[in-house]
Write a structure and sequence with these properties.
This protein is mostly helical. 38% of the residues lie in helices and 6% in strands. Residues 1-130 form the Trichome birefringence-like C-terminal domain.
């Protein structure tokens, strides 16, 4: 509902703006979540067989993509695009800091939400450039 509301509002300003929606970026915690002892200490990408391709992450992604398509088709909003990172990030459990990043505020906590290491984010930037180029 939040994305639908935002896209409906932004459509009013289509001539002045371009809207890019980045799909859901999953976390990779195992044995709990970030504040209950969950870890994400993987050092290599996951294999396709190691990923739950029917999980909630892809449901969230699907909803995002559907909303963009809905506003594009039903409202004629042509300056809206999607940077779809969900599937590729599901296999990149190694692409973010683990417990060894020396965070002075969260000692011992893994960080599966902030993607800041070279590799995954570089791919996001390439995708963003391709989406922007396709909307121009």
């Amino acid at each position: 509902m939040a994305l639908r509301t935002a896209l409906t509002f932004l459509k009013k300003y289509e001539k002045q703006t371009t809207t890019i929606v980045r799909t859901f970026a999953p976390s990779h915690f195992e044995n709990g979540v970030w504040d209950t002892g969950g870890t994400c200490n993987r050092t290599v990408p996951l294999g396709e067989g190691d990923v739950d391709w029917k999980g909630y992450e892809l449901e969230v992604r699907g909803g995002q993509v559907e909303e963009v398509e809905r506003v594009r088709v039903s409202g004629g909003y042509s300056r809206v695009g999607v940077v779809d990172v969900t599937k590729m990030m599901l296999v990149r459990a190694d692409g973010h800091p683990g417990v060894h990043w020396d965070n002075q505020y969260s000692k011992g906590y893994s960080d599966c939400v902030h993607w800041c290491l070279p590799g995954p984010i570089d791919a996001w930037n390439e995708l963003l450039l391709a989406v922007i180029s396709g909307l121009s």
